[in-house]
Automatic annotation (TrEMBL):
Domain called HTH marR-type: residue spans: 7-139
Record-given protein name: MarR family winged helix-turn-helix transcriptional regulator
Keyword terms: DNA-binding, Transcription, Transcription regulation
Keyword DNA-binding: yes
Organism per entry: Actinomycetospora flava
Length: 162
């Protein structure tokens, strides 16, 4: 029985790509208050209606006290604003400012370029497939197992679509 090479291990590959992505993303968002977490807050706010600090913290998996400090920094930079929730005066809504929206747009463009450089060994269609599969796995982790995603990738490779 032969031992598979480490390069064939999903965990090794995911870890290596994740570390490379983290280094790249940190370079892009280094000037943003909160760095990568600050970016996630801006992106989370752009995705829909105003949200409470608590809901945002839960969605992003950030401790609520850490979220308070992070929002203080982002608000100080003029990227977000907090206001009382009209439906519940005890809660505060967090909104993306116009300055924050513009900054997010630039960061998204720069991150996409950095990701494309990281994923350069893949064809553009493969990059899109990888992003879609990883997003499905991340968002619906309970509904889709890593094994299912790996099997789908193998099927795509076998039929030549990947």
């Amino acid at each position: 029985m032969t031992t598979p090479r480490v390069e064939a291990d999903l965990g090794w590959a995911l870890g290596r790509v994740a570390r490379a992505h983290l280094r790249t993303a940190q370079d892009v968002v280094s000037g943003l208050p909160g760095g990568p977490r600050g970016y996630q807050v801006l992106a989370g706010l752009a995705a829909g209606p105003p949200r409470s600090q608590l809901a945002l913290a839960r969605t992003l998996g950030v401790d609520r006290t850490v979220m308070t400090y992070l929002l203080d920094e982002l608000e100080g930079a003029g990227l977000v604003e907090r206001r009382p929730d009209p439906a519940d005066r005890r809660a505060r809504q967090v909104l993306l400012t116009e300055v924050g929206s513009g900054r997010l747009c630039g960061l998204e463009r720069d991150l996409r370029a950095a990701e494309d450089e990281l994923l350069a060994p893949l064809e553009p269609a493969e990059r899109d497939q990888l992003r879609a599969l990883l997003q499905r796995l991340a968002v619906g982790g309970d509904a889709v197992s890593a094994c299912q995603v790996a099997a789908e990738i193998q099927e795509m490779q076998a039929d030549g679509s990947c």
